[in-house]
Amino acid sequence: MAPGNADDAVLADVAADVAAKINVMPMFIALPITGLTIFFDWSAVLRFGVRARNLSSDKVRHFADVWKRAPVSPVADLVLVYERLTPFVYFSRKPGTVHDG
Question: Global pTM?
């Protein structure tokens, strides 16, 4: 996928929609998800030398797989939350739509 193409716009839009869904969740759910997401982003520095947001999608996928197999339940659960929520958001969108935040 070339940078700046329509797929990138859709992926960015889905990511924004997922973040919006998390932001409207009750605080006792949203706060741990947000905290673990920030931890995930910064913990990539230990493995790759950069934050997860700056990695290629393949490396992020690999890193998420590592987290999914983690013996610490909340860490593995975070990946499951995103694995369930992202397809829900993606498939609930109207085909071909891209929103402006």
Answer: 0.77
- Residue-level length of the chain: 101
Which of 44, 32, 46 has its CA nearest to residue 78?
Answer: 32
Q: How many CB atoms neighbour CB 52 within 10 A?
A: 20
pLDDT digits (tens, 9 = 90+) for 54-83: 998 889 999 999 999 988 888 899 999 999
For residues 82-93, b (16+ Cβ closer than 10 Å) or e, as one string? Answer: beebbeebeeee
CA dist 33 and 20 (Å) reads 12
Q: Domain boundaries in the chain?
A: 26-91
In the chain, the amino acid numbered 52 is: A
Q: Which two tokens stand for residue 80?
A: 């499951």
Question: Measured between alpha carbons, how far is 92 from 31 in angstroms, rounded to an integer?
Answer: 24
